[in-house]
Give the backbone structure.
Amino acid sequence: MLADLGLFYCAFFWGLSFVSMKILVGVYPTCWILFLRFTAGAGLIYLFFHKRINKSIAHDFKGGTILGFLLFLALATQTIGLNYIGGGRSAFISAIYVLMVPLIIWALLKIFPGWVTLGAAVLCVFGMYLLTGDEMSGTFNFGDFLTLVCALIFAIQVILIGYFTKGCDPITLSFTEFISLALFALLSSLMFETRTELIDVESLPELIFTIILCTFGCYMVQICAQKFVKPARATIIMSLESVFGLLSSVILLGEPVSFRSGLGCVLILAAVLTAELEPFLKLKKLRS
């Protein structure tokens, strides 16, 4: 239950981060934002857990580096894809990773996730389709392809988090993930981006909020929580990010919400509740 609450925390603040990121992308290039976020996030992790990290950094370095590279690749392909497709279309295609995770586990590991989990995943994806509005019309293009690649990478990363946390310290794994992602982002920024200033003072509150709560807190909590939660179940819970993102946009930015989007939120919530109730249904069945 505590691990599930941790994933709810991640979904909540990732949803809120849509508002702060809308401000930051108007100030900084994409890779530079990632560099600032994850460098500062790594610094905070080391500040609080340096003794723990120093003991296990060599053992957990490989896993964290792989996770950091995959997360950077996913964020980069998603961002580049946004140059060709709308935000709603991107959000829906990215959300397909919720369905990919149980299917990949079933195909590669021969572990059937259960009909309840599969049904909840399908319901979640359909809810995301409704939530993202009317942007799904039109032909399949390069932006769709990149975003589909992003969804696949997200799915693989979530599965690997479940794998690496079995034999690694989750805190050290988070630290090495942050460091490797920050280095990949810095190299990409130096190669492909131009900046007018290193830090913008006016957007500093949004940057601090994104670093402390949405980066340092969320990604570290995700890895710690997934040590106790199966990947398929974790993705369904984290899909609430889109619901919180919509609510924060409505409340903080005054954006309108349609009946279709509201229905999408209800379906995603229903999918999450289904995933949450599944263990209790299995326990009841065993007792009977």
Observations:
- The first helix runs from residue 2 to 24.
- The chain has one domain: 2-287.
- Residues 2-287 form one domain.
